[in-house]
Amino acid sequence: MNTVNMTIDGIKVTVSADYTILEAAREASINIPTLCYLKDLSQIGACRICLVEIKGARGLQASCVSPVSEGMEVRTNTDKLRSARRQNLELILSNHNRECTSCIRSANCELQALCNELGVAEYPYDGSKTESIIDELSPSIVRDNSKCILCRRCVAACNTIQKIGAIGVSRRGFKTTVGCIYGKSLIDSPCVNCGQCILVCPVGALHEKENINDVWAALNDPTKHVVVQPAPAVRATLGEEFGLPMGTSVTGKLVSALKRLGFDKVFDTDFAADLTIVEEGTELIGRLTNGGVLPMITSCSPGWIKYCETFYPEFIPNLSSCKSPHEMLGALIKSYYAEKAGIAPRNIYTVSIMPCTAKKYEAQRDELGNNGLQDVDAVLTVRELAKMIKSAGIDFKRLPDEDFDNLLGESTGAAAIFGATGGVMEAALRTVYEIVTGKTLDNVDFTAVRGLKGVREAEVDLDGKKVRVAVAHGTGNASKLLEMVKSGEKSYEFIEVMGCPGGCVTGGGTPILSANLHAYIDPKTERAKALYGEDKGKAKRKSHENTELKKLYDEYLGEAGGHKSHHLLHTHYQKRSKY
Asked: Which of the four CATH numbers 3.90.1150.10, 3.60.10.10, 3.10.20.740, 3.90.480.10 does domain 3-77 have?
């Protein structure tokens, strides 16, 4: 590795020659404030908050785009720099909706934090503001341009990482705005509702469409029997909202909190993840045996499904017909559980706690319901659930651990890893291997499909039959994979795609990290550790070993992939236009 020697605030450092000054400073434990910058995503020097003084240079330089050089001398903390940073913040604030106490990002806003750190208390440039809109037509995401600071991080996430291009920058100067083509709403754009734009927004310009009041209303309605289910990734992320270290598994406390909020039953989406594996595995074996459409592609991620329907409709026949796990469980709650409990399905209100904003969109799809009732009535993100817990006065960290309710609450280790990229594939292979070969799989860890490489591939030996598999996470990587399949460059039997980078553990509804945290920690890795830890800790690690699941088939569904299963647990997809 080529290195250079330089001095930052009098400290001599040796760093990689391809570093920027910002990266070099962070390696030397010197924090230069940033706003538009986000590691591995946005380095455009637009906000001018990360200014530094370089000996011999004319004027102040943006450290996020300034490369290091041999012998360079840099100062990051002078009166001139502090004054320039404050002035730039004041200029940003002059065109910003400053109703901080009512803002969804209050106390978790990078702009607010910088103003506090740099002592910005007055608004000397207050004047006219850019005309703004609030776009709340999407079922998943709200855009409030009165909060937008034109950092362009959301544009980078949508265009560079996800390769969708639902939003961009238009006009110039004071009239510059971030939005959709021709001023359209997100609902009329190619947006797949993934919410990655929300995760990178430093302010309150983007946030999920909240369903908190709907859920409170249901909980307070004596005619409603309210049933809740949390997704696998929720237990790996919720603790962060209460100050617990990233990667802390909080399953027992999560269940305890949900029961204290007043839900009548607390079931587990992990149960439905096991169910999905049995149904999807049966479907895959059927396609392999009977000459079905291959490669079969998983259908658990609603952002990916909408992306496929919009950008690659020719692959719709390849999609598994299985509903996503929480939709499967919603269907069973209003059928199997309703019969068992003697409750009319119309009186049951189902709530899903998800790490995903696209699940809000998914729950409203016409295809996902029975007898005039939607499978799932409301979806809350991890952030929304945390708000409810806090507003109810529940001391989350001191809660005892409790268990999910019986009937639809048991799960295996295979279900737990659904929240990490490659998890669905690995869980499926554990079951498919034993069904096809009739042999016991002793080593259940398919490590070849784990990891954070954008596209990963492996070959599995099913007792002499070779099955080629591939895994992609993030729609940008999904596009690369599908293009290779289309061109004939690659051939597979089974593909897993997750709409969000890293899978559900970094879904659009998970806790939002500051740019500083992003610089030093990778949430994709840390949160996934919690799920693999849950998997390791389970006595049963293969979906088909789930006792309650066996009972469901014996008493209600009959056989996997049978008529009743198809009616309740499977669906279809449709081609969608981009606009």
From this structure: 3.10.20.740
